[in-house]
């Protein structure tokens, strides 16, 4: 899901929220995003809270205007970011 949050906050313009099936998949997505953005666009994340013992099933990649959230299904239901940011414009939703 891609949410346009720029009218609700100044922390970012967009949230990308996705569900991962397992930690291995989350790590692969995290690594691929970092590599592609760094090599092809020369964009580096400002901060990463990745898949480790303390992540709790939630990976956060902060690229300034865009923040990527990768959740295990359990954590996505627990945190319910879509509900917390329900006033945000849904730009894209893939089922």
How would you describe the overall organization of this protein?
The structure is a single chain. The chain has three helices and six strands. The protein is of the alpha+beta class and 95 residues long. Strands 3-4-5-2-1-6 form a six-stranded mixed β-sheet. A hairpin with an 8-residue loop joins strand 3 (47-49) and strand 4. The chain is globular. It starts with a strand and ends with a strand.
Notable traits:
95 residues; alpha+beta; 6-stranded mixed beta sheet
Write the layout of secondary structure elements.
Layout lengths: L1 E3 L9 E7 L2 H19 L5 E3 L8 E5 L3 E7 H7 L1 H4 L4 E4 L3
Parallel strand pairs: 2-5
Antiparallel strand pairs: 1-2, 1-6, 3-4, 4-5
Short description:
Helices cover 32% and strands 31% of the residues. It is an alpha+beta fold and 95 residues long.
% residues in beta strands: 25-35%
What is the subunit arrangement here? single chain
Largest sheet: 6 strands, mixed
Specify the structural class: alpha+beta
The residue ranges in which pLDDT falls below 50 over 5 or more consecutive positions are none
Strand order of the largest sheet: 3-4-5-2-1-6
Mean pLDDT level: 91
The number of strands is 6
Work out the radius of gyration: 13 Å
Helix tally equals 3
N-to-C CA distance: 9 Å
Order of helical and strand elements: EEHEEEHHE
Name the overall outline: globular
